[in-house]
UniProtKB/TrEMBL annotation:
<feature type="domain" description="EamA">
    <location>
        <begin position="19"/>
        <end position="148"/>
    </location>
</feature>
<keyword id="KW-1133">Transmembrane helix</keyword>
<feature type="transmembrane region" description="Helical">
    <location>
        <begin position="286"/>
        <end position="303"/>
    </location>
</feature>
<dbReference type="InterPro" id="IPR000620">
    <property type="entry name" value="EamA_dom"/>
</dbReference>
<dbReference type="GO" id="GO:0005886">
    <property type="term" value="C:plasma membrane"/>
</dbReference>
<feature type="transmembrane region" description="Helical">
    <location>
        <begin position="136"/>
        <end position="153"/>
    </location>
</feature>
<keyword id="KW-0812">Transmembrane</keyword>
<feature type="transmembrane region" description="Helical">
    <location>
        <begin position="75"/>
        <end position="92"/>
    </location>
</feature>
<dbReference type="Pfam" id="PF00892">
    <property type="entry name" value="EamA"/>
</dbReference>
<feature type="transmembrane region" description="Helical">
    <location>
        <begin position="19"/>
        <end position="39"/>
    </location>
</feature>
<feature type="transmembrane region" description="Helical">
    <location>
        <begin position="45"/>
        <end position="63"/>
    </location>
</feature>
<feature type="transmembrane region" description="Helical">
    <location>
        <begin position="228"/>
        <end position="249"/>
    </location>
</feature>
<feature type="transmembrane region" description="Helical">
    <location>
        <begin position="112"/>
        <end position="129"/>
    </location>
</feature>
<keyword id="KW-0472">Membrane</keyword>
<feature type="domain" description="EamA">
    <location>
        <begin position="168"/>
        <end position="301"/>
    </location>
</feature>
<protein>
    <submittedName>
        <fullName>Conserved hypothetical integral membrane protein</fullName>
    </submittedName>
</protein>
<feature type="transmembrane region" description="Helical">
    <location>
        <begin position="261"/>
        <end position="280"/>
    </location>
</feature>
Length: 306
């Protein structure tokens, strides 16, 4: 029996699908931890983000040190500039907009807005890089945004505050736009910098940007005044929903390849909404389920139509 258990355990740990699912699940908890922190104490988005990134910074520095001698060679000034721009767009600006948006809207709507970033990558590519959009892709775009409309309907019915939904939705959509730009930048830099080294350098740079923002903004909340619960949720965001997904996804990509590992990302919105029902007690409605189905289906269709 012990040998059989060991074989099963080894098989699970060697299966890239397990790592991919766990990566999606741990990242899906990020918005849940943010909402729990907001509920535990009146903390602003900049302070909470600074806590998250400050705790995550040692990991990114360790990873950057480990990858410093990567086979891709030293970075040129131009590549360093690209890394800083990508870090600014991704872990810093996109995260900041997302944290602000979560003060207004539900985790379910937030996750679905973020999940449509592939549609923005497509549209930015068409407008900026002059990449043509195929006919089937337009149908996928329509399905995605019809699903978002259903998700917005859910939040409007539950909160009754159209202004809050509009403000929060706009902030998170801005987060999705900056993440799409980050994604395009990563695609341009990864082959020249190395994907792991790029993640480490971008992560470390963005952590420093967030901490500088916190120091310059003069947040009304002092870190020492925050209760242990907020520190705990920030630590969970930094470890469970920032560091761990990166490590797990890297393990999944090594075993499955980037394309197959990416297919498991569709689990993210499903898991976030499920966690919001179970952990946060957010109500489940048919509008949200329809929105989830259409957005996930539209993004999957978009991936196949390229």
């Amino acid at each position: 029996m012990g040998a059989l258990t060991g074989e099963i355990r080894t098989g699970l740990l060697d299966d890239g699908r397990t790592f991919a699912v766990l990566s999606a699940a741990t990242f899906a908890l990020k918005a849940i931890f943010v909402k729990l922190a907001y509920a535990a104490h009146p903390v602003d988005a900049v302070t909470l983000l600074a806590l998250r990134m400050g705790i995550a910074l040692p990991f990114f520095l360790w990873l950057a040190r480990r990858e410093r001698g990567a086979a891709e060679g030293p970075l040129t000034p131009g590549l360093w500039g690209g890394v800083l721009i990508v870090g600014f767009l991704g872990y810093y600006l996109s995260s900041l907009f997302d944290f602000i948006g979560l003060t207004y809207i539900s985790t379910g709507l937030e996750r679905l807005i973020l999940f449509v970033y592939p549609t923005l990558v497509l549209l930015i590519g068409a407008a900026w890089l002059k990449q043509p959009v195929r006919g089937k892709a337009w149908g996928a775009l329509a399905v995605c945004y019809l699903g978002l409309g259903a998700a917005v309907w859910h939040d409007l019915e539950q909160s009754g505050d159209a202004r809050a939904v509009a403000i929060g939705g706009a902030w998170v959509f801005a987060s999705s736009v900056t993440y799409a730009l980050y994604y395009i930048g990563v695609g341009k830099l990864a082959s020249r910098v190395g994907s792991t080294r790029l993640a480490a350098y971008c992560g470390a740079a963005s952590c420093l940007m967030v901490l500088a923002h916190y120091a310059a903004a003069g947040s009304p909340v002092r870190l020492g005044e925050l209760p242990a619960s907020v520190w705990g949720y920030a630590a969970a965001m930094a470890t469970i929903s920032t560091v761990l997904p990166i490590v797990l996804l890297a393990a999944a990509i090594r075993r499955l390849g980037a394309g197959r590992a990416a297919t498991f990302s569709t689990l993210g919105p499903v898991l976030t909404i499920a966690f919001s029902w179970v952990i946060l007690g957010e109500p489940a409605t048919w509008q949200q389920v329809v929105g989830l189905t259409l957005v996930v289906g539209g993004v999957s269709w978009l991936g196949k139509s390229k």
